[in-house]
Structure formats: structure tokens, C-alpha cells
Amino acid sequence: MNNQDLLNISREFGNPVYVYDAEKIISQYQRLTGAFSKVKHLKVNYAAKALSNISVLRLLNQLGSGLDTVSIQEVQLGLQAGFKPEDIIFTPNGVSLEEIEEVAALGVQINIDNLSILEQFGTKHAEIPVCIRVNPHVMAGGNTNISVGHIDSKFGISIHQMPHLLRIVENTKMHINGIHMHTGSDILDIEVFLYASEILFETAKHFKNLDFIDFGSGFKVPYKEGDIETNIEELGKKLSRKFNDFCKEYGKDLTLAFEPGKFLVSQAGYFLAKVNVVKQTTSTVFASIDTGFNHLIRPMLYGAHHEIVNISNPEGRDRFYSVVGYICETDTFANNRRIAQITEGDVLCFKNAGAYCFTMASNYNSRFRPAEVLWYNGKAHLIRKRETFEDLIRNQVEVDLQLSGSKKEKEAVALKEG
User: Fold this and answer.
1) Is residue 142 situated within a structural domain?
2) Which of 129, 248, 253, 350 is surrounded by the fewest CB atoms within 10 Å?
3) What is the pLDDT of residue 1?
């Protein structure tokens, strides 16, 4: 996609708007599968939480991807998008036994990450195969909020609890068919990933009837020009070799599984917003846009970096701006950022807006969530309509309130007495 394509989408569908480039999603999927081509059985389960629009899910399903889900609603979306139940894995955290049972009844692969639910589920449903999420106690990830494999994490069953875990499996006679880990997001050092994989291999030796080992994901993508990223090709060579050697030792060709979200869709996404006001203060030039952290929360939540380009004036002289939103509290996308000269009415483009952007949007300040557009085969396809006021109040229930001593009653009494 080029700037003109994005400007045309802005004019056609209005602002703010999310845009996803299907070709980038396809190329990232092919890059990942190519890096692990030496593995006999590879399964890529796209992490639906990154971007769950049903048209994007259908695209990935057609590519041959499976689906990683964390809620029964994501499971239902996956089924609606055409994924077979056996191609969906359910990896929740802290959900009820009832939700897990409901998902299991759909024929979806269950992944359990705590001993309490494991024992309850195994006692009631020993015949249903279960994957176990272990915590390798490896700190990895670009931010403490997205590092999930360390010792203080709420995710996974600690490797130090293995004796207790094995006792539950033995007592319930349940079938463990998979082992899973996820250390965090934005992993750059592949040696950390490889170290965690060794822990996973050692854990897998305790289970004799595995079908797959799931290494999670968390691959880092570049956020700006010249930025570093996870070397997928090098990781593919090293991990494939280790995995194939383990399969020989195990005596069975297992499936190597991954659950990429950001890696597949982050760079495919663009978020377009119009400049409402350029405001000069004593120390700062603010570019205020027609959106806020209600639509793109990552910079405020994680301190995430999104490149911002003025696609209305890409060749303009660079100046320094703080780009801010319209939410009535601190709402900053970028501080003192170098951007081509901005004037009111210009359209700014946020890059890397494909993952954890629209899916984390809200109606805060009673604002409507934006439209979504898929760029496919050189054409723009609307895949989610912009919300309206009717959408905002659809599930609200108005109650007829008659408060005693209300202003109207007091006025009525005053008129009667007068």
C-alpha cells in the first residue's frame, strides 16, 4: 500500500479508520512457515486476541493457519470464520471450569494453566485430551506487562510444581497430549527462547503420549526504520534442529506449534486520523487528532512506539510535534516527535496498528469505535462499519425514574400553593 491508497481510504470511509494490508499478513505467514520448513509437522495457531475481525480470521484460515483463543467468544468467532474445532486451541487464564467444559464440548483443544482446574477437569473428563501450559520461569518480553514466563507471573503451572502435576495426572488417568509455554512478547534474544525450549523439552519427557509441543510466540517486529526484530530465520534453523533431535529421542514425530499474533498482523495495520487542531504553547506544538486512547491505547498503556507519518504532506519540512488525542485526560500518542509539517485537516498515519489496537478499543467518553478496512487485491473492502449512536445505546435499558422531591415535583407544588 502507498500513501495515496491510504488517503483514498480516508476520504471514502472517514476518520479515524483502521486499515489492514492482506498481502503483508500473507507474506508474514509464509515467512514463518518457511523458517521452520525443516520440521515435519508444523502448526501455526494465529492468536485471535491480536486482531479478531472475522474477515482477517477467514484469510488466515485459508492460509492454513490454526487459531489460538483465550475466551469462548474467540472460539465462537473462529468457528464462525470456518476453522475446524480441531484446529483451535483454547488457552485461557483464570476462567471458570464451566467455560472450559463448554469449550471442550465443542471439540476444541483445551490448554490448562493451573493445578486446581487441571485436577477438577481431569476428575470429571479424563477421556478428553488436555494440553498443559507450564511456566518455565524465564523472563522475556519488551515490557513487564507482556512478560509472562517469569516466576511472579500469573500464567502457567510452575515447573517446580511438576511432582504435584504428575500426581494429578496419575490419579485422574487423564490424557496429556500437549505441552505449552509462552514467555512473553517482543522477544529479541533468541538464545533466551532456545533456553526456555530446553526446559520445555525436559518437561515433555514426563509425558509419553504427546502429540505436540507448543512454544507460544512473542516474536518482536520492527516498530520504526532501522529497528531490530527477532531473527525468525536463525531461530527457525536452531529450534528446528533441537526439535527434530528431541523427536528422535522421544520416538515420535511430534507437531511443533506456535501462536503468533503480533508477528502476523502488526505491520499489516495502519491507523488513520485527521488533525483537528495545531496548538502552539510556550514550549510545545501539539497536533490534536480526531481520536484518542479509546481507539489506540498501546502508547498510554505500554509506552508502545508507533511511527507517525503525515501522509497529507509526506515531503514537508520536518518539525517537532506532540501528537495528542481528544480524550479529556492525559492522552498522548507521541512526545516531541519529528514529523513532516502538519496543518489542520491533514491525515496522520500510525504504523504497526494491526495487533492489539482495534481489539483493545473502547467507547470511553461515549465515542464511537472506528471502521475497519481490509486492503486485498488492490481494493479496499469495508470489514467493520463505523459505530453509530444506535450502537452506543443498543444494550442500555432506560428506567422510568420518579424521584421524590425532584425539581419538577417542587415546581408543581409551588404552582399549586401559589
Assistant:
1) yes
2) 248
3) 87
